[in-house]
Amino acid sequence: MSSSPSSPAIDINSSDAEAPSKASVAANPSDGWSPDETNQGTVSPRTYAAYVSAAGGVVTALAVLVVSVVSEGTRGFSVWWLAYWIEQGSGNANVSLL
């Protein structure tokens, strides 16, 4: 393998080849973002729009919301109905274990 003097060859199989340090992977101010510039505690409407878009769009997000509300509503109703039905029992049921 030949290499030019301006770009030395790097042997990726050698043990002395250095992996990028964590410091070099960290945020770089030239990227336009730095940890000091974050808005903590707030989520912009733009972020919510990105989530809805990633979920499949407004129609899909609304359908999931409606199905979730209906599901929880029916679960709550069934618990209430079972409690009501048990309370309304006559109390004199005959059970035979033969």
Describe this structure in words.
There is one protein chain. The protein starts with 21 loop residues before the first helix and ends in an 11-residue tail after the last helix. The longest helix is centred in the last third of the chain and has 30 residues, at 58-87. The protein has a domain at 44-86. It is built from 3 helices and no strands. It has 98 residues and is an all-alpha fold. The radius of gyration is 32 Å and the shape is elongated.
Quick synopsis:
The protein is mostly helical and 98 residues long. Helices cover 45% and strands 0% of the residues. It is built from three helices and no strands.
Helical proportion, percent range: 40-55%
Any low-confidence stretches, pLDDT <50, length ≥5? none
Query: How is the main sheet built?
Result: none
Mean pLDDT: 75
Counted beta strands:
0
Which quaternary structure do these chains form? single chain
Q: Compute the gyration radius: what is it?
A: 32 Å
